[in-house]
């Protein structure tokens, strides 16, 4: 039966290898022993030092990200405050003054509305 299966597999261009059950068990036992040996930690100190180095890199990366995030949050809060003041300023304007703000340059030239120029830094 094994020969018939081997011949059929060869017809489909598959590689065939015949081995006795005893030879297969010997090979599997040998591989199992090799794997158990290689799974043992050879030098725990090297692993500890490697892990410490990796953790230091990760901490540094996240500290940098944290610092940049804090800067961005401060920038956003500042823009939000300026936007709130601009809303109040605009609400207090007369209808004629509000009409002038249809011109984008007017926004840039008015300190209370100039926060808009910093909005471009977000994108």
Give a brief description.
With 123 residues, the protein is an all-alpha fold. The chain contains six helices and no strands. The longest helix has 48 residues, at 44-91.
Keywords:
single chain, 123 residues, mainly alpha, 6 helices
Termini Cα gap: 71 Å
What radius of gyration results from the CA coordinates? 36 Å
Number of helices: 6
**Structural class based on helices, strands and sheet pairing:** mainly alpha
**H/E topology pattern:** HHHHHH
- List segments where confidence is low: pLDDT < 50 over at least 5 consecutive residues: none
How many β-strands, per DSSP?
0
Report the sheet with the most strands, covering strand number, pairing sense and barrel closure: none
Provide the helix percentage: over 70%
Mean pLDDT: 85
What percentage of amino acids are in beta strands? under 5%
Shape: elongated
Strand-helix topology:
Elements: H1 2-11, H2 21-38, H3 44-91, H4 95-100, H5 104-109, H6 115-119
Written overview of the protein:
- The chain is mainly α and 123 residues long.
- 76% of the residues lie in helices and 0% in strands.
- It is built from six helices and no strands.
- It is elongated.
